[in-house]
Design goal:
Distance between the termini: 60 Å
Radius of gyration: 18 Å
Number of helices: 3
Order of helices and strands: HHEEH
Shape: elongated
Number of strands: 2
Structural class: mainly alpha
Strand order of the largest sheet: 1-2
Strand content: under 5%
Number of domains: 1
Helix content: over 70%
Length: about 100
């Protein structure tokens, strides 16, 4: 068993649990993109560890899941950037009013 892959799985699982808890507590749709990202990455690492030979056509399932995880991560990163810009714009607007 590849210890780096196992370590990544543990790291992704910890992040997944933390973001599920945050998403449930804060009830914000934003956390869904992060949860999907870490779910896909966890699944990819699990397939690498336990079912590496499983494939769709000639493409390994773990590779498909990892690519989907990267796409979900890109959505999550853009969403985070938009939230940050909106938050900063809101703060600068409040500073100008005072």
């Amino acid at each position: 068993m590849n210890w780096i892959t196992l370590l990544l799985l543990v790291v992704f699982l910890v992040h997944l649990v933390v973001f599920i808890i945050l998403g449930l507590r804060r009830r914000q749709l934003y956390y869904l993109s992060v949860i999907v990202t870490f779910s896909l990455l966890c699944a990819a690492m699990m397939f690498v560890l336990w079912w590496p030979e499983l494939s769709v056509g000639e493409v390994p399932v773990h590779a498909l899941l990892r690519r989907a995880g990267w796409m979900a991560a890109s959505v999550s990163i853009v969403w985070t950037a938009v939230r940050l810009v909106n938050r900063l714009r809101g703060q600068s607007g409040r500073q100008n009013c005072s």
